[in-house]
Amino acid sequence: MNHPLRIPFGTSGRANSRSFLYFRMCARSLVKYRILVDQIKGLSHLDRRHDEIADQLEEAAVEPVIFGGMCLEATLYELTACLFGDTYAEQTDKLGPMGKYFVVAKYMDRRVPDTAGITYQQLKALIAARNLLVHHKSVSYLEGDIQKVLDGTTKQHRQHVAGINASFKALVRLSLHFDG
Questions:
Q1: Distance separating alpha carbons of residues 136 and 30, to the nearest angstrom
Q2: Can you tell me the distance from the alpha carbon of 29 to that of 125, in angstroms, rounded to the nearest whole number?
Q3: What gap in Å lies between CA 3 and CA 33, rounded to an integer?
Q4: How confident is residue 11, by pLDDT bands cut at 50, 70 and 90?
Q5: Closest Cα to residue 123, out of 142, 152, 99?
Q6: Which band of pLDDT confidence, cut at 50, 70 and 90, is reported for residue 16?
Q7: pLDDT digits over 57-91, tens only?
């Protein structure tokens, strides 16, 4: 599997690059997730394998989002460092991923990225899902409005699924965006 960006990070003078590793891990974990989704669809809740596969699926649902986010962060840092140097990359490292994307895209495209475009939307979905996982907060259902809790949980689940679906696609679209 090739790196999503054609910039040869292995030969660009960057040591300890992790973007390709995270890209592979995102792709493999997405395949694993999809296989488990297919397996659980055919099982009854009464089947003894259901709970085991459900546990594996819950874990597998985290991996594409986390590794996709890690790949995005590493790739944007390395692109920034290659284009502007390490000092500037370290200064922009305080920006969130979308801020870094805007910096690199504006430099390479000579314009601000289209926020209605598919690349932007998939990157945004990936980052939102990643943030839900990394900064997760449990919610009490013993106090307050149970419908509000259920609605919030449903919204978070939809954001997570959108992030899973966007994880690999966002990285490929990022490559296509910059590779034209």
A1: 21
A2: 18
A3: 21
A4: very low
A5: 99
A6: confident
A7: 999 999 999 999 999 999 999 889 988 999 999 99
Contact 105, 112 (CB under 8 A): yes
SS3 31: helix
* AA identity, residue 21: L
Stated as kind and residue range, the H or E segment containing 78 is helix 63-84
What's the rounded Cα separation, in Å, for the pair 159 and 129? 6
Q: Whose CA is closest to 133, among 91, 102, 162? A: 162
**pTM for this entry:** 0.85
Return the amino acid letter for 46: L
What angle (nearest 5°) sits at the alpha carbon of residue 132, between those of residues 120 and 100? 35
Q: How far is Cα 162 from Cα 55, in angstroms, rounded to an integer? A: 20
Tokens of 83: 């284009």
Copy the structure tokens of residue 13.
Answer: 């003078």
Residue owning tokens 């297919």: 38
C-alpha–C-alpha distance, residues 109 and 171, integer Å: 18
What is the sign of the dihedral through the CA atoms of 168, 29, 4 and 94? positive
Coil, helix or strand for 69?
helix
What is the per-residue pLDDT for 126? 95
> And the tokens for 115?
């926020």
What distances in angstroms separate CA 175 from CA 2, 79, 115, 158, 159, one per listed residue?
11, 11, 17, 26, 23
